[in-house]
Amino acid sequence: MPPSSLRVVYAFAREMHPKTSDVFIQYGTAGFRTKANLLEHVVYRMGLLAVIRSRVKNGRTIGMMITASHNLEPDNGVKLVDPDGEMLEQSWEEIATRLANVSDNDLESTTAEIIKQVNADMSLKASVFIGMDTRYTSPRLAAAASNGVIALKGTPKEFGIVTTPMLHYCVKCRNDNTYGTPTEEGYYEKIVGAFKNIRQKLPVYGEYNTTLYVDGANGVGGKKLNIIKKSLDGELDLHLYNLGGNGGKLNLNCGADFVKVSQKPPVGVEHVPFQRVASLDGDGDRIVYYYVDDKDNMILLDGDRIATLLASYVTELLKSADATDLKLGLVQTAYANGASTRYITEELKVPVSCVKTGVKHLHHAALSFDIGIYFEANGHGTVVYSEKAKKAINNISKDGEPEQRKAAQLLLNFIDMTNETVGDAISDLFLVETILCAKGINVKQWLQTYTDLPNRQLKVTVKDRNAISTTDAERRCTSPEGLQTRIDEIVSTYKSGRSFVRPSGTEDVVRVYAEADTQESADKLAAEVARAVFDLAGGVGTRPELPT
Ligand code: 16G
Ligand code: MG
């Protein structure tokens, strides 16, 4: 493309998506995320960047998802998806940030600079898949994304309202047709089809029952389950709540993040004692389970629980298939409950690694195993299978002894049911339901595998959260001076105490995590550490109170 045609970039910007705010915005752990009314020019510019990225990748398709996940309705966001359905390569985050923040007058020249810097051949075709969540600001932003793509002569394809993982899946399929068909229907066929296949091989038995309640967070995940529900023939009896009607507000007092962080059941769900409930987040890439007991206590089964359930089942299947030479490993973050890590290492004897918060870090680390399971405690996770593992399992499914063949065939269905590109609430839901059914257990039995250490999360507002730097997968902080020593002193006075602090990647706060032997101690430990952060890292506002 001759440089003169970059004029269109400026013309579109000025006429349709002008930069109206000087607020600096940064491509963070999950793309750009802020108030929706500050985003239109950013999304337009990401449309430009997606085209450049597609050309750098030889015309392979790039994804753009318009969503602010579990944030409340007034926020929105955008993130780019790489050709294999993974998060945008990290080195491009800085490029994205630069392009998002230049003035309209400098947009054309900055675009030219970036094209040169990344060595994009602008004569190639470029393809960009665009998806959005249910926010009322999303259609407008999706249109801005399309315009960005068109301005650089790429081809946009809008998928309308889809979950984030569906978009990742479609991008992957478009670039690798062995993975599936790049449409919403293709997604259902593969994932739900695999679930139905398994159910035929593993009939319902034991304490498992097929009734599942779902909290849809008034977002896109519940809506899609409502479509899936119609195609299930009694394999799973879904009762769906918080589907976005009846005045229910997106993520407000409901959804996976609310349930996990507040440790309270969501509004809008009918609660029957001991009935298992799956709670999704607003864009359908996170899931936690919970139930309410007969005394109205909520018992949470979070991402760590799902990870351990997956690890124990995959281990069993690998044993039955006599494929134990395949290396299975699990990846967690510092937020993983200490009890889960102990259970995985000591009981399941599966190796665990701990990485920094953020899906890209977990995903990357999981790829180093033949079969890698990764989960954040907040419910984001999936399983990735190497080509070596897929081949070996496939061979056993054909040539193994009858029992081995059976296990390998189940594993193949299990692989099909997994969205390997990114954590996916819908895919994870089917994985969990399959395992509970295979083991013939109910939610109380699932809980009995280990006992979570009580924990508490708090946030502290400080002048500059980047004054906090961390090391050792965020488990220790290296600045400000003296803070880690102070945390160590505080923690040493608590039985089974553990605590760490880190700057949030999505909010202007410092996060505090604490766990200890009792809830009271965990609450107090968290508060003491929050006060240390406030004192040593430039706290703003009121000093955090100790619990009374
Ligand atoms: C983003 C991340 C999520 C992480 C969360 C932490 C992705 C797709 N999402 O939502 O994995 O748990 O940020 O938020 O990477 P925080 O930095 O504000 O604690
Ligand atoms: Mg999400």
List keywords for this structure.
binds magnesium ion, A-D-PHexomutase_a/b/a-I, alpha/beta, 18 helices, binds 2-acetamido-2-deoxy-6-O-phosphono-alpha-D-glucopyranose, Alpha-D-Glucose-1,6-Bisphosphate, Chain A, domain 3, carbohydrate metabolism, five-stranded mixed sheet
Task: Give an overview of the whole structure.
- The structure is a single chain.
- The protein has 548 residues and is an alpha/beta fold.
- The protein has 4 domains: 3-161, Alpha-D-Glucose-1,6-Bisphosphate, Chain A, domain 3, CATH 3.40.120; 187-300, Alpha-D-Glucose-1,6-Bisphosphate, Chain A, domain 3; 303-423, 3-Layer(aba) Sandwich (Alpha-D-Glucose-1,6-Bisphosphate, Chain A, domain 3), CATH 3.40.120.10; 455-536, Alpha-D-phosphohexomutase, C-terminal domain (TATA-Binding Protein, 2-Layer Sandwich), CATH 3.30.310.50.
- It is 41% helix and 18% strand.
- The protein has 18 helices and 19 strands.
- The chain has helices spanning 7-15, 40-56, 93-101, 104-117, 138-151, 164-175, 184-201, 220-229, 256-262, 303-320, 338-348, 359-366, 387-399, 402-417, 425-439, 443-447, 483-491, 519-536, and strands spanning 32-35, 62-66, 75-81, 127-132, 155-161, 211-215, 237-241, 277-280, 287-292, 298-301, 328-333, 352-355, 371-375, 381-385, 455-460, 469-471, 476-479, 498-503, 510-515.
- The strands form 5 sheets. A 5-stranded mixed β-sheet has the order 1-3-2-4-5, with helices on both faces. It has a 5-stranded mixed β-sheet with strand order 7-6-8-9-10, with helices on both faces. The protein has a 4-stranded mixed β-sheet with strand order 12-11-13-14, with helices on both faces.
- β9 and β10 (298-301) form a beta hairpin.
- α2 crosses α5 and α13 runs antiparallel to α14.
- It is globular.
- The relative contact order is 0.09.
- The model has no long low-confidence stretch (mean pLDDT 96).
- It binds 2-acetamido-2-deoxy-6-O-phosphono-alpha-D-glucopyranose and magnesium ion (MG).
- 2-acetamido-2-deoxy-6-O-phosphono-alpha-D-glucopyranose (16G) binds next to loops.
- The site of 2-acetamido-2-deoxy-6-O-phosphono-alpha-D-glucopyranose (16G) has 14 residues, from loops.
- Residues 61-101, 109-172 form the Alpha-D-phosphohexomutase alpha/beta/alpha domain.
- Residues 181-288, 302-440 form the Phosphoacetylglucosamine mutase AMG1 domain.
- It catalyses: N-acetyl-alpha-D-glucosamine 1-phosphate = N-acetyl-D-glucosamine 6-phosphate.
- Residues 487-531 form the Alpha-D-phosphohexomutase C-terminal domain.
- Belongs to the phosphohexose mutase family.
